[in-house]
Design brief:
Transketo_C/PFOR_II, single chain, 26 helices, Rossmann fold, disordered C terminus, disordered N terminus, 3 domains, 6-stranded parallel β-sheet, alpha/beta, magnesium
Length: 733
C-alpha cells in the first residue's frame, strides 16, 4: 500500500519518481548471480528514485565530474539497484560493471561489513577539506551511501561514525533499509542509538511513503550534522497504478536527472574557467604531480640534515633506536608542508610516541617558488571551523586504526587528496581488511607503520608474521628502509607507486658500533661511502649491493641480505668476517615488490652465486624466494617475548657475532660436503643445514642464478642494473 496522496499536488510530484523506481526494478530483473529480489533491496528503490530525480547532482555524460555528488553502495547485494539507475540515466557502460571504485562519482565500496561507512566518511571529509581550500564555488557536493544494517553494526562503522560526528560532516547521508534484518531488529536499533549518540541526525520513515521520503531527504540536506535515514518496511509502493497525464517526460522517467546534472555542470564549468585557483584545482583533482616536488623534497632534506630532532621514542638506547623512525616521520612532515593535498593521520593508544605536535620541519616551509606556507594556530579539535588539515599536524584518531585506514580508502576514492596514516606495526591485524580492500581496488595511499618496542609489546601482541603477511598481499608495496638515504628513497618510490597502498615500515634497532646520526658505518675496505644520490637511485630498485666483498663479486664467499635496522648488523658482521679473511658482500633489500620487477640479470648480479644469509627480526616466511636452496635465515619465528630490543636480538642470534658464526658454519658445512664422494659441489643435494627458529623453510624449486650473473672486478660498486661497464671502462662510450 502506497502512502503518497495523488489527489494533491505533493502526491503528483512523486509520480515520476515512482515510475523511475519501477523502471529500475525492471532493469534489475536482468541481473544474474546476485540476489536482487531480496526484500531489503526492493524497499530501497523508491527512496533512491526520489534521491536521484530530485536531489542528486550527477551528470551521466560526465561521470568523473569533480563536483558531482558521490553516491555509493556498500554491498554487492545492492549492486543491481545501482546498475539499474546507472543504465536508466545513460551512464557509460564501463561504469556500470561491478567494481570496487574506479575514480567515478558513482560506484561501489563493496568490502567487509562497515568498510563502506568508513569510506563514505573519508569521502565527506575530503569534500570538506577541498571546500576549505578552494571555496564552495568549486567544491559543493554531497556524499550519499546506500548501506545495509550489517554495515551499521560493524565496529569499524561505529568508529567511523564517531569520527564523522566529531568533524561535523554535515554533507554526509547514509541510507539503510531495515528489511534486511527482520530477525535482528534489536541489533539494528542498538546500532542506530550508538550512531545517534555520536552526533548524527537520525530519521526513520516508511519505505513506501513518497511524501515522507522526500521530506526526509530534504531535511538531510539542511542538517548541520551527518544524517542517517532508515527506511522501515519491505514494500516500496512501486506497484501502485499510475495514469499518465501526458506531461510526464519526453524520453522516460529518468531524463530529469540527466538534465539537471548537465545544467549544474555547465554552470560549474563557467565558474571554474574564471576561478583564480583553476590550475591548482585541476592538478589536485586529476592527481597530477606537483612541479618540482622532488627538487623541493631533496632540498628540504639537505637543509634539515643537521637540524636537531624533536621526535622522541623512549627505548633503552633512544638515539640508536629512533633514527629510522625519526627520519621516516620527518619525511611525512616535509611532504605535509610541500603538498597541499597531503593529509596526514595518526592512530594508536599513545600517538604521541610516534608523532609530536611540534614535529614540523621548518626547512620544509619554503618551496622552490619562494612561497612560504602559513602555520595556523588552530588545532584539528574543531574541524567545523578549521576543516583544512593544519600543516605539520596530523589528524589524530586515538585507538581507531581500522576506521583511520577505512577513511583513507574514502579519501583515495574521492580524489583530490593523498592520505598517509601512521600506526604501529602490531596494528596490522586490525587494519588488514581496509588495507586489503585498498590493494584489491588498486587505491593509492601511504601507511607508516612503526615497529613496536618489545619492552612494551612483549606481553601484549608481539610482532612476528606481520611483515610476511603484508608482503604476500597483491598490489601492496612494503618498504623497510635501513637508514636515512633508504628512507628518502622509500618515500620517493612510495609516491610513485600507483598500483595500490604503499607501506613504509620504520624499524627500531639496538645500538651497534656503527650507529651514527642518519647513516651506516663507512665502507669496511676503507673507501668513502657512496654518494647519497647514487644510494637513493640504487635503493629505488628495491634491492642493491650495499657493500661489495673485497675483490669484487667474483671473490664473494657469501652474501648477507638484510632490510631495515638489521642492515647495520649485517655491516658489522661483514667487518668481523673480514678479520677472519672471509669475503662477504652485504645486500640491502628494502622492497621485495620493486626488486621482483627488475630483470633477472640485475637480480642475479645483486644476489650473486655464493651462499646467502638473510637477517630480519621477523618471520622467515617468504625469504626462501631470495635465499635459494642453500640459504640460511636468521630471524624470529615464534612468539617468545623479550624485555627489550637488545635482548630480543640476542635471543634469536640477530647480532654481528651471531651472524658471523652462522656464516662460518654455513661455509664450513659446504667445504665438508664438497669432500664427500658423490656429493655435487654446487650443493644440489637436499640437506637441512640448520634447525630451530633461525632456519627458514627451503624451496622446492631450485634456481641457480650464477649462469646469468654480471661480473665486475671493481672492488667497490653499487649495482644499479643500468650498465655492466666498470667505472674505468675504456670502450669508448
Amino acid at each position: 500500500m502506497i502512502s503518497a496522496d495523488f489527489s494533491s499536488g505533493a502526491g503528483r510530484d512523486f509520480r515520476s519518481a515512482i515510475r523511475f523506481a519501477r523502471a529500475a526494478r525492471a532493469q534489475s530483473s536482468g541481473e544474474t548471480g546476485i540476489s536482487f529480489g531480496h526484500s531489503g533491496v526492493n524497499a530501497l528503490y523508491l527512496v533512491v528514485a526520489i534521491l536521484w530525480e530530485r536531489f542528486l547532482r550527477f551528470d551521466p555524460s560526465a561521470p568523473a565530474w569533480a563536483d558531482s555528488d558521490r553516491f555509493f553502495v556498500s554491498s554487492m547485494r545492492l549492486s543491481p539497484l545501482l546498475h539499474a539507475f546507472l543504465r536508466l540515466t545513460g551512464a557509460p557502460e564501463h561504469n556500470v560493471a561491478a567494481h570496487h571504485g574506479n575514480g567515478y562519482a558513482i560506484g561501489m565500496t563493496a568490502g567487509l561489513a562497515g568498510q563502506g561507512v568508513a569510506a563514505a566518511v573519508g569521502m565527506s571529509l575530503t569534500e570538506k577539506m577541498l571546500a576549505a581550500r578552494f571555496g564552495q564555488s568549486l567544491v559543493d557536493h554531497r556524499t550519499w551511501l546506500l548501506a545495509t544494517p550489517a554495515d551499521l553494526d560493524a565496529g569499524v562503522a561505529l568508529e567511523a561514525s564517531a569520527i564523522a560526528g566529531r568533524f561535523r560532516l554535515d554533507r554526509l547521508t547514509v541510507i539503510v533499509g531495515d528489511a534486511f534484518t527482520r530477525s535482528s531488529t534489536h541489533d539494528l536499533n542498538l546500532a542506530i542509538d550508538r550512531i545517534e549518540a555520536s552526533g548524527w541526525a537520525v530519521r526513520r520513515v516508511a519505505a513506501n511513503d513518497a511524501n515522507a521520503l522526500g521530506a526526509a531527504l530534504a531535511s538531510c540536506q539542511r542538517s548541520r550534522r551527518p544524517s542517517l535515514l532508515v527506511c522501515d518496511g519491505d514494500d516500496d509502493g512501486t506497484q501502485v497504478s499510475i495514469v499518465d497525464d501526458g506531461e510526464y517526460e519526453l524520453v522516460g522517467p529518468w531524463s530529469v536527472t540527466a538534465r539537471r546534472g548537465r545544467v549544474a555542470r555547465h554552470t560549474w564549468l563557467r565558474r571554474l574557467a574564471r576561478h583564480r585557483l583553476r590550475a591548482e584545482f585541476e592538478r589536485t583533482t586529476e592527481s597530477r604531480a606537483m612541479p618540482r616536488l622532488i627538487d623541493d623534497w631533496r632540498r628540504a632534506w639537505a637543509t634539515v640534515e643537521h637540524t636537531p630532532s624533536v621526535e622522541a621514542y623512549h627505548v633503552e638506547d633512544e638515539r640508536a633506536a629512533r633514527s629510522i623512525v625519526r627520519d621516516g616521520l620527518r619525511g611525512r612532515d616535509i611532504l605535509t608542508m610541500l603538498l597541499p593535498e597531503f593529509v596526514s593521520m595518526s592512530a594508536g593508544g599513545d600517538s604521541s610516541r610516534h608523532v609530536g605536535k611540534d614535529s614540523r620541519s621548518p626547512a620544509a616551509s619554503t618551496t622552490s617558488s619562494g612561497r612560504r606556507r602559513s602555520k595556523a594556530a588552530h588545532t584539528n579539535s574543531d574541524i567545523s571551523t578549521t576543516p583544512l588539515v593544519v600543516p605539520g599536524e596530523p589528524l589524530f584518531f586515538g585507538a581507531r586504526e581500522p576506521a583511520m585506514v577505512g577513511l583513507m580508502n574514502g579519501l583515495s576514492q574521492h580524489g583530490g587528496a593523498l592520505a598517509c596514516g601512521v600506526a604501529t606495526l602490531s596494528m596490522v591485524d586490525r587494519i588488514r581488511p581496509a588495507l586489503r580492500f585498498a590493494a584489491l581496488a588498486g587505491r593509492r595511499m601511504l601507511c607508516l607503520l612503526v615497529e613496536d618496542d618489545p619492552q612494551t609489546a612483549a606481553d601484549l601482541w608481539p610482532t612476528v608474521e606481520e611483515l610476511a603477511s603484508l608482503r604476500a598481499m597483491p598490489n601492496l608495496a612494503l618498504f623497510r628502509p635501513g637508514d636515512r638515504q633508504e628512507v628518502i628513497a622509500a618515500w620517493e618510490m612510495a609516491l610513485e607507486w600507483r598500483d595500490g597502498p604503499a607501506v613504509i615500515v620504520l624499524g627500531l634497532s639496538p645500538a651497534t658500533k656503527g650507529d651514527s646520526e642518519g647513516s651506516m658505518t663507512d665502507d669496511p675496505h676503507g673507501d668513502a661511502p657512496p654518494p647519497a644520490s647514487l644510494m637513493t637511485f640504487a635503493a629505488a630498485h628495491g634491492g642493491y649491493v650495499r657493500a661489495e666483498a673485497p675483490g669484487g663479486p667474483m671473490a664473494r664467499q657469501a652474501t648477507i641480505i638484510a632490510s631495515g635496522p638489521e642492515l647495520a648488523i649485517a655491516r658489522e658482521a661483514q667487518v668481523l668476517l673480514m678479520r677472519d679473511d672471509v669475503r662477504v658482500a652485504v645486500v640491502s633489500l628494502p622492497c621485495w615488490e620493486l626488486f621482483a620487477r627488475q630483470d633477472s640479470a640485475y637480480r642475479a648480479a645483486v644476489l650473486g652465486s655464493a651462499p646467502r644469509v638473510a637477517i630480519e627480526a621477523a618471520s622467515g616466511f617468504g625469504w626462501e624466494r631470495w635465499l635459494g636452496f642453500e640459504g640460511v635465515f636468521i630471524g624470529r619465528n615464534d612468539f617468545v617475548s623479550s624485555p627489550g630490543q637488545k635482548t630480543l636480538y640476542g635471543n634469536f642470534g640477530i647480532t654481528p657475532e651471531g651472524v658471523r658464526d652462522r656464516v662460518r658454519q654455513l661455509l664450513g658445512s659446504r667445504v665438508s660436503e664438497s669432500r664427500i664422494p658423490g656429493l655435487q659441489s654446487d650443493g644440489a643435494a637436499m640437506t637441512e643445514r640448520t634447525s630451530g627458529a633461525h632456519r627458514a623453510g627451503t624451496s622446492n624449486h631450485r634456481t641457480d642464478p650464477r649462469h646469468t650473473v654480471k661480473r665486475d672486478a671493481s672492488p667497490r660498486r653499487i649495482v644499479t642494473g643500468q650498465s655492466e661497464k666498470d667505472g674505468d671502462s675504456s670502450d669508448g662510450n
